[in-house]
Amino acid sequence: AVLATAAAQSECETFAHVCPMTLGEPAVLPAQNDATDIQLNAGESQYFTVAAPKTADFVLSMTVYFGDPDLYLTIDGSAPSPQSAAYSSIARGERDVLRVPAADLASCAGATCTINIDVVGYATSLYRLVATSENGFTELADGVPARDSVSATEYNYFKFTVPATDADASALTIVVTPLSGDPDLVVSHCVQPCADKRPTQQVHEWQSQAWGGDTITIPETSHSTEHDTTYFIGVYGYGNATTFTVVAQLDANVALADGQPQEGSVLAHGARYYHLFTAGAADKSITVSVTPQQGDVSLYVTSQTSGAPTNVPGPHNFKWSSTDNWFSPETVVIRPGDDGFLAEAGQYNIEVLGTTDAEYSIVAHSEGAVVGLRDGIPQTASVGPGQYLYFEFHVDDPAQDIAIDVTPLNGDPDVFIDCTLQATGDATGTPSRETGHFKWKSENWGHDSVLVPHDDPAGSCSATATGPNGGTFYIAVLGFSNSTFTILGSMNDGRPTLLVDGSPQQGTVIAGSYKLYEFEVGAAAREMTITLTPIFGDPDLYVNTEGRVASRTEYTYRSQFSRGKDFVFIEASDMCTSCFVSIAVYGYQTASFTITATSSDALRTLQDGVSVRDFVQHNEYEYFQFNVPEGGHTLEITCTVVSGDPDLYVSHTEHHPTSETPDTIAALHYGDDRVVVDNAEEGKWYIGVRGWTNTSFTLVAHVRSGAGEAMQRLVVGQPQTGAVAPGGFAYYQLIVNDFPRALTFTGTPFEGAISLYVNFCGGPEDGNRRWDECDGGRADGNDADRRPRENPDSHAIENFVWASSHSLSRESVRITLGSQHVCSQCSYVIGVHGDGVGTSSFSLTASTTDDLVLLQAGVPFRDYVEQGQHEYFVFSLHDEHSDVVISVTPFTGDPDVYVSACGTLADGTASVCNDRPTNTSYQWAHRAYGADTLAIPWAADGACVPSAEASCDFYIGVYGYTASSFTIMAYLHDVRPVQLVDGVPQSGAVNQSVSEQYILLVEPGHTDIEITLTPRFGDADLYVLTSDGNDPSRDRIPGPNVYDYRSIHATGDDHVHIGVDDDNNNCRSVNVPCRVHIAVHGYRPSQFTIVATSSHAATTLQAGVPLRDTVPANSYEYFVFTADVAATVITIALTPISGDPDVYVSTAALTRTPTSTA
Fold this sequence. Notes:
This is Peptidase C-terminal archaeal/bacterial domain-containing protein. By secondary structure, the chain is an all-beta fold.
């Protein structure tokens, strides 16, 4: 189809030349060659008249291809106009609809009513106009969608005729696209001449009752080759009133209305064709987006001017294409200046090519158009800084609550909602950020969610609507920065939200209720992973693959871990095909969360600054993608190990980067891996995580763009690794709904030194704002900047409430319920400050007294437990035949350790899970005075058996026999080293003739290193290798035959001193961090404490545990001791073994290095 050429208009342009219409058929304009797709210039009018029966409602509906035409109507025979009309519809962004009740028509004189219509061009427009009586049929044109509404349990009828001359042409496809509610589709047919039919759910020839869109394909063998064949189409309102579009397609391409979504389906290697008319605008871009509901498609677009031959797009003929997103949305943006861009009237032709069998939703829109949202179907979009994008969400049932959720993939979009629309594209319009220009808003840093109850005191857009057309919510999304996001409109009507393969979707669930999702699976069986990451609260996950709605009682898979680890893995052999997987998120507590369903074919999409947890098997890869919205900034990708050893591969060109692909950046360190790309190019970046062993990990991608950049989000109990430059800050955010008994932020420095500063946003002292009303640290002048920062003049740190310099350790902040400024329904902003001489790497964890902390294998975590209380942890194991060691090292007090396991037992049955072991309910325990080291053999009674698909989870309770400050660590008996923190003691155990491996990372710069091994019993020896990373042969495993330094005393401590100028010291680089490899070898079975300290750090002392050290003449060695109980007498005893040492003590927070004069 192409646009008709406009002729000089005389008919229809004035009321004196009104054009007649026929019920059920589109209006025609003789001046445009009897066109049914009618052009209208801005500021002009076109007049029509139609006779309607008085016994049924009259409906006038308009399909708007582009522009903004308005409708004005009279029923008394008078001339309609904007100043004189009994009924009008001036909505922009949706099809204008006018419904006249039969009760109003009853007053008309005569047997019928003469209804006069004035169509006014608010902007240059192209439209189709159809008048129907509620009991009549609407004639459909080939490829032209008709939008309509139907009441609950009622039918609206349409018909489509296949001429006998076209009977051999092709199959007939009928598609119903729901915009709200759940329409069902029934079809019957007859060969002319015949009486009209009205198919029902009970009497029909073809039927589709899918939850969501409905498609019926009728083979060409059903068409008569001798007479015309008429298909009668009924759309039924299932459950509630519903708004929908219906299209019948035989030979023509489907016409897309500007901004209106259209359901579609395509077979593998098949194609569907669409076109979008445009009036032409030299400065307005065009966006075409396809969102797969299942399967994978590619997108190709061409253009043609009005009247030109059809330019059919395809893989070998296109101007624009999007083919690389692998089961994810494909988007094409056509910008002014592009070759083929239409500055004049014409059309864009679109091919959706099926890479596999696929079902999808397609929408094309011009810049500034209003994009329609489908109930429960997410739509992907992008917006620039300071720009507004407009959406509409139609609600038929005034009794329904609605939710608008915006999930940022990067950047920071904000949301404003109103019942009226003035789409100016800036703050002068409605909705916008300006006061009085919105009814509801969310300006949270990160995801935005707005819930509008049907009885909201602010007034719901649907609450005052009459008739089955309901009301429309208009949504403006403002780009605080360059942002890519998904937007979802949904009603609380029990209908599930569709999950797009690999795309995150944020949501909220109330305590004790469900939020339902579904994932459509095609004919091919594929593995599937469903991951639930809480933002706050405690949601649980239930999955049903057997055709039932998932719930706490109807599930085939479930995951109920406390915060941070709710995911379900389904093997391909267990997955249903050609089905819908039902997913229920249950609110154990009121919770906000992100949920992602990813098949083995898709790339999981990462959100900027939001960590995701996943698992990869030995020698396998898991793949992710991340969009950089604007080039020239630094891209950081961090992989944090939970257990195992991942390797990280990143590419801008290779969709599945590996160790062998070109243009790939690799990070292959043992433990955490990090890739930093300076001046990263705009567009998609692809990430592969390979399992060197069976590996559990978290992954986060973040764009550092300077002031105002997005903060990384913390998940309670889940560690997040990072790095910070000297004197700089790395920023994080934690959202809290209900404040717990205590909240702790713990930083563990791996290399260098850090300190923590914390501020808050929300609560009584901050205008009683909720967390979703907080800017969360913005520096745009509209709200106070909540980020801790350094004063450029005094260099003092300011803009914080809590600091680790005031806490028990330099790297933690503990906030208790009685603390000043404590808030609920708010967010905390955490600044990690780099105190080292070089880049400092660290792990940061937010934990509460109510939640489990996820332990990283071989990484110590520092915490505090009150007397008679428990602190809880979890360690996940995926490696079979692995012994687990749990070590608790006290600094003060006496903690004890209790452990239970949860998973599959050796006989294949499930263990009884106890995720809160106590001193009275546990499987294993260690209750020594002082340090506790508990080894659990893989074959121990009650031990679960891990696998690649299902972990064995060890739940750990640390009980405060007295109030205790401690570190806890879980690790495996293998060659992978345990991480030592500079200056922090770590307890351990070793068997005879066996070695335990440790590693210390020391920041660049000349430094001495002291390593002290203090046995509790037995005899262990010390072997050390040093490496600056320049010589890979130096990164070996030390032992009795491989070492640079050793200490093998038969009794007492073993001590190694590495001098900065020693010949054996290979850590002399001032630019590269030093890696100190340490083996503790059991000459006899031994339990011990080991501490390694560089001259950059102070050694942490344990209460009541002596530490042996040396100090050169006229020099200082520094130590730190934390007192966690008020009014405690502290005694520091220095026992010289040789020489004459002196001791100096400071309690001032800022005096970390006391001397004889300070």
